[in-house]
Amino acid sequence: MAPIDTDDHARKKGSAEFLVLAQLEDRPRHGYEIGIEIERKTRGAVSFQIASLYPVLYRLERKGLIAGQWVEKAGQRRRRYYKLTRVGRKVLSEQRRSWSEFVAALQAAGGLEHA
Amino acid sequence: MPDFRAYIRAHLPPLHVSGAREADIVEELALEFEESYEDALANGSTPEDAWQQVVQHAIPWHQLAEQLRSELRETNPVAPVPELTNRNVFLACIADVRHDLRYAFRQLSRSRGFAVIAIVTLALGIGANTAIFSLLNAVVFRSLPVSAPHELVFFGNARAEGSTQYLSSGRAFSYPFYREFRERNHMFSNIAAIHSVLFGTHGRVDDTLDTEKIAVELVSGSYFDTLGIRPTVGRAIREDDDRIAGAHPVAVASYSWWQRRLSANPTSIGKTILINSTIYTIIGVAPPGFFGVTVGRSPDLWIPLAMQKQISPAWNGLSDKRFQTLHLIGRLKPGWTAKRAAEETTSLYRQIASEHAAVDSDDRELNAIQRQHIELVSAATGRSPLRVQFSSPLTILMAVVGVVLLIACANIANILLARALVRQREIAIRLSLGASRSRLIRQFLLESGLVAAVGSIVGVFFAWAAGRLLLGMVSTGTQTVPIQIAPDAAVLSFTFAVTVLTVILFGTVPAFLATRLDVAPSLKEGRATTSSPKRNRLARVLVVAQVALSLVLVVGAGLFLRSLNNLKGVDSGFDKENVLVMGVDPAASGYKDDRRLEAMMEGVEERVSVLPGIAGTSFVFYLFDGGAWRDDIQVQGRTKSDADPGVNNNVVGPRFFDTLKMPIVLGRGLDARDNLGSRKVAVINETMSRVYFNNSPLGHTFGIADTPDFQNLEVVGVVKDAKYEHLDESQRPAAFYPHAQHIGGRFLYLFIARHTGDSARLIPEIRGAIHEVDPNLTLGEITTLEQLVEDSVVDKRLVAQLSAFFGALAAFLACIGIYGVVSFGVVRRMGEFGIRMALGARSYQVLWIILRDTLQMTILGTAIGVFLAIGSGTLIQNQLFGLSSTDPITLMLATFAIIAVALFAGYWPARRAMQVDPMVALRHE
After folding, report:
1. Is B36 an interface residue toward A (CB < 8 Å)?
2. Cα gap B558→B566, rounded to integer Å
3. Which residues in chain B (500-529) have CB-CB distances under 8 A to chain A?
4. pLDDT tens across B44-65, in order?
């Protein structure tokens, strides 16, 4: 089992990155859509302030995990779409494993019930 | 919707990134705000509530800025900066340019219509410039193909052809003068003499039976040495070949003649040519490309001057100090400038000429010699009758094609401006993605450069094809002028320079204007349909300039065409139609200038004149545009005045005036009575009668100065004035003498025949009739008098035809320019027209709005054009005949033509606007 990072700030940062990557797994999305998607899937438990996702997106882009591109579609606004890169996809699966181990550890140690 | 971009820009603290990057981020954030706002509205919020929700739910600005700054700083990690060596900068630059070039290719292949129009327009402009420059270069600028041409100088301008007996003329020199000067001077390393006239003789090569035309240039033994020309095969003419008169019948062949006539066979050295009963041996072949020192004239053979009498049996004087017919060319010794050498040359000329004059001259001539100055004119580019004739026409045409290119550039600049509008989005995106403006300008210039480069390559091909056409246009007679006008280094450099200039002219301003834009609004726009007033204004200014310039060209074309028409309408004083002109070479057939020659001429005149379909025949010494024998005359009982004009003398057959239909206005013409046994007579023209005989000349006598055979000539008739050398000459006195009374001293090389029947059928009959008189008589080319007259205006015709062509091209280009700008305006204002028509405007009112706009530009353009045309008119005044450069009719016609063309160009887009369906137009908006 990989060592779990317990630093709160790092974990929050890490969780945001994980959530963003996960939303891009099946198709490219623009920034607003990513935020909405996370809020919808977590039934509002996790929501981001307006514009707060962009530092995360730019970071992921810098790390080469996602790639942004301006796209213009007929009848729509021009938007910047982000998609998962090959590296990003690999990192996502690693993170997914490490998060499930973390959640399993919390369940075991904290006496949490299965969701 | 609130303007979130402005809101974000107002609140977001600086991120310390490039403007483009920041614009990109603002755009993305604004989109997020907009979507949140729209969602709030969709959930039933009022706009105020929605605004509040969005603003309250936004991450605090300072926090966002801090996070973004931290992320973005890392986004641009400070890579180890490579050492900025020149090599790195250079390589980076190359890589950038390669990338931009690829992009430019893609852009152009995406808009093929634009590329094709621009390339064809430029190819026409650049091609025209290259073609005219090729000719100008060949005729005026190109150095002689000799060694160190800049060291060579002519004595005087070396233009006069023929001979003069005045020792003070300083224009042509005698053989004795050449010998003495060469001996006594210390300024020149060598001096050569060249006969001023190229002899069109006839000869037989080796043992062939047919005689053929051979152009012979007589040159001194020093000729090839002075020019530094080594023969390709054999040897050159040497001093020894030119020492004793008539002793060395040798010839050096030109390379092209050697190829054409002797199949470039190296063993042809030693072959012989029979010319005028003398057998010449070919001793060498000049190198390829060497044509002598006269541009536009290429001798077949060079023969030593010492053979003058054998080549020109009736007109020569090798030892005669007053038979001055040579041009001298000298090679300056190192350290001598032409100016300093000219002083010494003048001084030595005065000494030698005075010594020559001392025997038989008067004080007047001696004084004139002491006043004469010999100028040394650079011979680097040779001498050329073509240059004298065509320098001004070609300079005018060069200016004309320059203006055509300007108009073409204006057209392309206009298209580029329109394209820049369409490409606003692309430019904005590239700017927002971090491209610098200079990089974009470079990109635009590269695209323009690519178009211009392809245009210039196509243009060079155009020029190459047009070059042959041009050569045909400057050539007279049956042969093309022998000059090389295939593009050479000078021409290609010129084309390159023109290409660079055109890119600067048409590419720069659009590139600068296109890249000067606000990123955000441009990104926001759909397909750009609006244009900035500045760009629009520039487009209109370009159209006005095109109209003005094309008017100048059309006015010029009109002036030249009318001038040519005036010239052709001049009363020549003779009937040029239905007259055949045949070259005859009695000298080549072994005739001497004696009674046998006279008998042959009379026999031929007689025999041919009785052919059915022939109305008159005559041998002539000089015919229209074939040069002249001009001399002073002395009228008995009349005091000579310095103001007396020289007289054009001509020796002709008895039926000359009938043959040319020149009416006798007083007394009689020449006829069979005038023979060797009768009193020597002359028929003079009206001007001579007026100037020398106060209009009552009959019975009076006169003589030609210093010409013993032409003394005590009785005037028996007056013929109507005519043109003798050119159609635009001022009227000259002229006198005509019967050849039967002047045997010896000249050959008459031209035979004319007036016909009533079909000339094609008559030519073989005439030949047959002549050969009945003498089967061995050498006959030359046949042409018509009409052709000679037509050829005499070849320079005027060239300018008129080409300026008309380029004027039409300019008007056409301006037409395209107007069409483009008006069309663009119509598309832009389609909505407006829709509204107007929906509100009840009639279609003719819409038409009028557009045509009014076109008219405004056109009238402004023509006003400027008229002003320019009048201003530049003085430059061409001396090329015009019978009208002023400010000729009001031409100006008016040209103005109407341009306005008509402009309205035509404006009408088509206007028609489109007229037919617009208001609903469609509004939807378009």
Report:
1. yes
2. 12
3. 523
4. 888 888 888 888 888 888 888 8
Chain A, 70 to 89: residues with Cβ < 8 Å from chain B are 70, 77-80
d(CA A41, CA B921): 47
Sign of CA dihedral B13, B14, B17, B19: positive
A69 in any annotated domain: yes
pLDDT at B538: 84
- Kindly state the tokens that stand for B129: 């410039």
| CB distance B707 to B674 below 8 Å | no
Q: Which domain holds residue A72?
A: 8-109
In the predicted model, is pLDDT for residue B374 greater than 90? yes
Question: What is the nearest CA distance from B112 to chain A, expressed in angstroms?
Answer: 24
- Cβ–Cβ under 8 Å, residues B908 and B847: no
**According to the model, what pLDDT value does residue A106 have?**
80
pLDDT of residue A4: 43
Mean pLDDT, chain B, whole residue set:
88
Do the Cβ atoms of A59 and B71 come within 8 Å? yes
HEC letters along B553-586: HHHHHHHHHHHHHHHHCCCCCCCCCCEEEEEEEC
- On the question of pLDDT at B529 being above 60, the answer is no
Chain A environment of B33 (Cβ under 8 Å): 50-51
Count of domains forming chain A:
1
The Cα–Cα gap between B423 and B444 comes to: 11
Name the residue type at position B922.
L
Q: What percent of chain A has pLDDT over 70?
A: 85
Whether residue B67 lies within 8 A of chain A, CB to CB, comes out as: yes
Which residues are within 8 A (CB) of B762 and not within 5 positions of it... i.e. 6 or more apart?
B580, B611, B613, B614, B753, B755
Q: Residue B643 pLDDT more than 60?
A: yes
Per-residue tokens: B482? 């022998």
Nearest-Cα distance to chain B for A20, in Å, is 16
Q: Which helix (H) or strand (E) holds B752?
A: strand B750-755
Largest CA distance in chain B: 132
- Report yes or no on A114 lying in a domain: no
Cα distance between residue B18 and residue B519, in whole Å: 13
Contacts of B611 (CB under 8 A, 6+ apart): B762, B765, B766, B769
Strand B250-253 and strand B278-285: pairing?
parallel
Could B74 and A54 be called an inter-chain contact, meaning their C-beta atoms sit closer than 8 Å? no
In a domain, A115, yes or no: no
Q: Which residues contact B689 (CB under 8 A, 6 or more apart)?
A: B666, B695, B696, B697, B715, B718
Which among A31, A55, A78 is the nearest to B67, CB-wise? A55
Report how far apart the first and last C-alpha atoms of chain A are (Å, whole number). Answer: 22
Q: Any idea what the CATH number is for the domain that residue A27 is in?
A: 1.10.10.10
Domain coordinates in residue numbering, chain B? 4-75, 93-142+386-528, 149-380, 532-571+790-925, 587-776
Domain-located, residue A85: yes
Measured between CA atoms, how close is A70 to chain B, in angstroms? 9
Encode pLDDT of B127-165 as tens digits. Answer: 999 999 998 998 889 999 999 999 999 999 888 888 888
b/e string for B534-544 if b means 16 or more Cβ within 10 A? ebbebbbebbb
Contact predicate B203/B275, CB 8 Å:
yes
Contact B71 A78 (CB under 8 A): no
A-B interface: how many C-beta pairs under 8 angstroms? 56
The complex's ipTM?
0.88
- Please give the Cα distance from B914 to B918 (Å, whole number): 10
